[in-house]
Design goal:
The complex is a heterodimer of chains A (219) and B (229). Chain A is 61% helix and 0% strand. Chain A is mostly helical. In chain A, α3 packs antiparallel against α5. By secondary structure, chain B is mainly alpha-helical. In chain B, α5 runs antiparallel to α6. Chain B starts with 19 loop residues before the first helix and ends with a helix. Classes of the chains: A mainly alpha (219), B mainly alpha (229).
Chain lengths: 219, 229
């Protein structure tokens, strides 16, 4: 079991003793099961594709970007609220602020690209987070550790389905930033060593959709 | 609270280079970079470049990284957090080598063999020297994958490249942690490199003349910067 996985499961165990178990389990559990967390994080000694990208084929670049835009807003909002809640200081705060700014910059870049394509920029969804998310740093960081692999999996899954090579170049740069975030969140979660994956994991579209639906993204 | 100012590029600014021909144009330039690049494409400089060339180029970079970290572990100069991080780095890069060899063989092509690698004399003399060189290798690896990915035709090979590209980004972050760079993840849009830039950065380690002739002794950071001239 990888550090990430064990950490998440420990987090869930802890939640079982809390009064808001049903609520939190419904949210976090939905996100994790949607990601297929049972097999997630296992270091597979291969780099073959399993065809996740096929679930994004036919959507078109604009629709993929519209979905990615909402994912970035979800992440950016999550980190902004974490900063505003005053949960962090020093290096922790600097990292959370940086990730917040990255996610918002990703959203801006995607919106600008959608404009170039003549496609609609989606309205900002009404995001909702499990109760207690912003109550303490540990709970917040545990959720962060579940968000980043969703973003990674979405970009990695979608990339081969993108038609424009320019948009692909932008998407994989953002993908790399999300992977860097995953490792940085590992550091903040005191996972040591934090670089605990040999291969990043792509996610098929339905798993990404199911993972983010509880947070308010229905597109 | 520090506010980070991020330049938000348009998608068109990411694509560099735009064509495979641009990506491989360094084959025509003079110097060690061109020599190394020619070796990497295994005598196919005049042939149509394809996904296999790109995968073989990536394989050479992974051989370089895997060998570097294996030697760093053998040198016995690492301890504490750095030892754990580098153990994983060595393992990951070795797995990337195996994966790329398998990928290239799976399409009926021949993987390049491991290049003869040369490292600066003091590369493994201390933990600091290992981390200094690691901090130059990892962004080159990221930039190489980001630069090459839009040139890959096969979606399956692109998907495989994506699973490795992100890991190299994580390595940058882990090295930043060891070097005390805060924030650890500090790039909103990690940068793509052209083959020219990648080749120039790694040529000194791939049999380039710079070190073996006793030429100007450059620090890893200087060699990396030279790759961007």
């Amino acid at each position: 079991m990888s550090g990430v996985e064990s950490r998440v499961l420990i987090g869930l165990d802890r939640e079982t003793s809390r009064r808001n178990f049903l609520k939190t389990a419904a949210w976090t559990g939905a996100a994790l099961s949607a990601m297929g967390i049972g097999g997630f994080g296992v270091a597979v000694r291969r780099a073959e594709a399993e065809g996740e990208y096929k679930t994004y084929e036919g959507l078109g670049d604009a629709a993929i970007l519209q979905f990615a835009y909402q994912l970035e807003l979800l992440e950016g909002t999550f980190y902004a609220e974490g900063v505003n809640a005053g949960l962090f200081a020093d290096a922790f705060l600097e990292q959370i602020v940086a990730i917040r700014d990255h996610e918002m910059a990703h959203a801006d870049a995607i919106a600008s690209t959608l404009g170039e394509l003549g496609a609609e920029v989606p309205a900002t969804p009404e995001f909702t987070f499990p109760s207690g998310t912003f109550g303490d740093a540990k709970t917040f960081l545990e959720l962060a550790a579940t968000f980043e692999p969703v973003g990674i999996g979405a970009y990695q899954g979608a990339a081969p389905a993108l038609e424009s090579k320019d948009i692909l170049a932008a998407a994989i740069s953002i993908h790399n930033a999300e992977c860097q975030h995953r490792c940085a969140i590992n550091i903040l979660n005191l996972i040591n060593p934090p670089n605990d994956l040999a291969f990043e994991v792509a996610l098929p579209l339905p798993k990404v959709q199911a993972a983010v639906k509880p947070f308010g993204i229905t597109g | 609270m520090e506010k980070h100012t991020i330049n938000v590029p348009g998608a068109h600014e990411f694509a560099r280079p735009r064509t495979r021909r641009d990506f491989f144009k360094s084959l025509a330039v003079a110097g060690a970079g061109a020599t190394a690049a020619s070796m990497l494409v295994a005598g196919k400089a005049s042939a149509k470049t394809d996904d296999v060339d790109i995968a073989n180029f990536a394989l050479s970079l992974e051989y370089l990284e895997a060998d570097f970290y294996a030697r760093a572990l053998d040198a016995g100069v690492l301890s504490g957090d750095a030892l754990g991080v580098v153990e994983n780095l060595a393992s990951h890069e070795s797995q990337h080598v195996d994966a790329l060899v398998g990928l290239i063989e799976s399409v009926g092509a021949t993987p390049v063999s491991k290049p003869t690698l040369t490292f600066p004399a003091d590369a493994f003399s201390s933990q600091a020297s290992v981390l200094d060189l690691a901090a130059t290798f990892e962004p080159v690896g990221v930039g190489a994958y980001l630069g090459a990915a839009p040139l890959i035709s096969s979606p399956d090979i692109l998907a495989a490249a994506g699973s490795i590209e992100g890991v190299e980004g994580e390595h940058v972050v882990a090295i930043n942690m060891l070097l005390g760079v805060v924030p650890y993840a500090n790039e909103a849009f990690p940068e793509a490199l052209t083959l020219d830039e990648v080749s120039a950065a790694v040529a000194p380690f791939l049999g380039g003349e710079m070190l073996s002739t006793g030429g100007p002794k450059l620090s890893p950071a200087e060699m990396y910067r030279l790759g961007h001239v």
